[in-house]
Amino acid sequence: MSATKLLVLGVVHLSGGAHGYQVRSELQSWGAEIWAKIKPGSIYHALKKAAADGLLNEHAEPGNSGPDRVLYRVTDRGRDEIVELVRDGLRRTHDPTMLDAAVAMLPMLTRADAIAHVDERVARLEAELVGQAQGWENPNSDIPEHVREQADLWAGRARTELEWAKSLSKRLSEGAYTMADDPGSWRTVPDPLEMRF
């Protein structure tokens, strides 16, 4: 649920406000139903739950010859939640869906914050690889050989992810992507609804 929550909140926020259908369409255009395993019903459930939890505000708008539509906008608490979920997804290992969602919402962090959490992931992966290698090297272990194959698979994935994370940290350090503290980011662009007043 955390990945769905993050993506739904993030799309609403980066859109400046959105209806459920808009959130669903945006996530479908990203292929999120595949890499985040998001189902359309879970999007609407996440919107309603986030509104009930005070992470989104709901604004009724007249529908075109039908019932009112609900426009969702992220609250300050919702923005804080997005940032915490991105941080958690970047540093948490063994949860590829949450990592994918965090990468999709990476611009919600400041550059230094993003680098720090990616670097924390690097450190965790390095420590896990060392620990895993030491744990499986015991010749007296009763672990079947075919189960050891799974450990090799995990280690291969972890090494690949480690190289990717190091590369991402380097690219961020070199200025890749518009981050939250950069000109033109979500934090530096005026909120169109706030400008009306």
UniProtKB/TrEMBL annotation:
User: What is the originating organism of this protein?
Assistant: Nocardioides albertanoniae
The beginning of the lineage is: Bacteria, Bacillati, Actinomycetota, Actinomycetes, Propionibacteriales
Q: Please give the name of this protein.
A: PadR family transcriptional regulator
Question: Which InterPro entries does UniProt cross-reference here?
Answer: Metal_resp_DNA-bind_regulator (IPR052509), Tscrpt_reg_PadR_N (IPR005149), WH-like_DNA-bd_sf (IPR036388), WH_DNA-bd_sf (IPR036390)
Q: Where is the Transcription regulator PadR N-terminal domain?
A: 8-82
